[in-house]
Structures are given as structure tokens and as C-alpha cells.
Amino acid sequence: MTVAQELVDPAFFSRLEHIELRARSIVEGFLTGLHRSPYVGFSVEFSSHREYVAGDDPRHVNWKIYARQGRLYVKEYSSETNLNLYLMLDVSSSMDCANTGVGKRMYASALAAALAVLALKQHDAVGLTTFADRVIGHLAPRAKARQLDEILKLIEVTEPCPVSESYAGLSQAAELATRCGLVVIISDFFGDPAQLMKRLEQFRYRNHEVLLFHIWDRYERDLPIDGNICFHDLETNETLTTQAEAVREDYLRAVNVWRNEIEQGCLQLAIDRVELTTDEPLDRALLDYLVRRSKSFG
């Protein structure tokens, strides 16, 4: 079985069938019904009539109604297109961490595949960018029938990249997200929070909505073991052996300070950040989040 085939679990995706992926902001590309734009224009599809008011374009007056009723009404139209979903998948070596069950990279890849399936079911355009210290691979958003196959193929052929700073790749990725849409970044976000915020600002400057899925191995986040522990940097291959009890307090304090810096930066930029650990069932974690997100639209 290939990596791509492992990502597509029919039972998993059947549980996602009735969940809608909905952007919070008004962005280009809202699907008919689910993604209907609240802005009324005069270019796409007839929506309704309303009474004429001074300043309305007389070209949109329904003269047939005027002939029958002697009152002026103008035609309104709904502006509709499809959502552009930009999936950004971190493939730096730190994503290969796999202490508790499935590795972070496999977990993140399955999440990207699930979001692609959800969006394509809604006829939205979905693209994928894999990144590390640079853009590694890129598929522009499309709503075509074989887009999922191409996304899975890109995931499968992409090798992990041994880098010490993956945020530079996000800057390049921002340049590829040319139309306003929903940007979903799936990563462990290891690095300087201030540098991450600079990259995220590039997406927000372009009026994208941004959503972060912050992927953890629970050993990284909680250090839930005792005795000797060997820390292995997957990007530099450096190792450090010590006693878990001796470093746990300082380690957790440093991790929490770092997490809080990222969280506060995201709040300032109006960006959602969702933490997931690889020992959580992905379908439950994703469903819980999407249901909660859907309710926010009331």
C-alpha cells in the first residue's frame, strides 16, 4: 500500500461527509448556497427584486413590472464563485518525529488530504504547497476531478528536508497564493515566533483568512516520561542525553512560553490556531474543530 493510499481511509472520510469547511471572512470564491457572497452585484445570477431608490442604475429597472404595476423595481443579482483553499504542508525533518504512534508528517498529510476532500466535495478549488526553508512543491488551486489524486501524489513524492528554519518557505508560499482565499498551514511551527508572525502577516496583508493546525508529538509537548532521555534534533542530528526529571520543569516552562508567544501573535492577527497531538484520533479532532467552527457562523 502506498503512502497516498494510506491517507485515504474510506471510513474516516465518510464521517466527514456532512461537515462543511466554511471560511469566516468574506473571501473570493464562495460556493452557491454554502459560500454565497453577501455582496449584491449585477453580474452573475438573478436573486430578487427591490423597489427603486434614487441613484439606482436605470439599466437594471424591470420595465415589465413597471408596465403592469406602475411602480419601479430593480433587479438584484448574487455574486458567486468558488472558495480557493491553499493547503500549506510543512515537510521539514522535524515533522518526522514519531514517538507516539503515527509520525507528525503522516498525521499532517492525512489532515491535508481530509481538508482537500471536504473542499472538493463542495466544488471548491484546492491547492497544495509543501515547504521547508523554501517551497518544495506546489499545485495551484483547482476544482477538477483529479485534483485529489494530484495532491496525494505530491505528498507521496516529497522527501523531508533537513533545515533549521522553515519560515522562509512560507514567504515564498505567500507569493503563490495569488487570489484571496483560505490558507491552512499544517506544521509544528518550530522556530522563532516573531519570524513566524512576519510570514503570517504576508498572508493577512493579502486578505487571506489563515488557519494554523499546530501538530505535536506528545513527548515533545509534555515530556511524559521518567529516567534517561535522549533528545535528537532531526534537522541537525545533534543529540543530548539527560534525566527527564532533572529538566522537565524548565523544559515545560520554555515550551509554554513559546506556545503562548505564538498564540498571542495569532490572536493579534485574527488567526485561528488549533493544537493536535499525533496520539489523538484525527477524525475526532478534526470533526470537533469543524463542528465548533461551523457553529460560529450561527
Brief synopsis:
The chain is built from 10 helices and 11 strands. Helix 7 (193-205) packs parallel to helix 9. The chain has helices at 3-7, 10-14, 63-69, 104-121, 147-157, 167-176, 193-205, 218-222, 244-268, 282-295, and strands spanning 40-41, 45-51, 73-78, 84-90, 125-131, 135-142, 182-187, 209-216, 228-232, 239-243, 272-277.
Describe this structure in words.
By secondary structure, this protein is of the alpha/beta class. Helix content is 38%, strand content 22%. 31% of the residues are buried. It has two domains: 3-28 and 81-295, von Willebrand factor, type A domain (Rossmann fold); 40-78, no CATH class. The protein has helices at residues 3-7, 10-14, 63-69, 104-121, 147-157, 167-176, 193-205, 218-222, 244-268, 282-295, and strands at residues 40-41, 45-51, 73-78, 84-90, 125-131, 135-142, 182-187, 209-216, 228-232, 239-243, 272-277.
Question: What order do the helices and strands come in, and which of them pair?
Answer:
Blueprint: H1 3-7, H2 10-14, E1 40-41, E2 45-51, H3 63-69, E3 73-78, E4 84-90, H4 104-121, E5 125-131, E6 135-142, H5 147-157, H6 167-176, E7 182-187, H7 193-205, E8 209-216, H8 218-222, E9 228-232, E10 239-243, H9 244-268, E11 272-277, H10 282-295
Helix pairs in contact: 4-5, 6-7, 7-9
- Helix-strand pattern: HHEEHEEHEEHHEHEHEEHEH
Spatial order of the strands forming the largest sheet: 6-5-4-7-8-11
What does the radius of gyration come to?
23 Å
CATH-scheme architecture of the largest domain: 3-Layer(aba) Sandwich
Q: Summarize the amount of helix as a percent range.
A: 25-40%
Largest sheet: 6 strands, mixed
CATH topology of the largest domain: Rossmann fold
Roughly how many Å apart are the termini?
42 Å
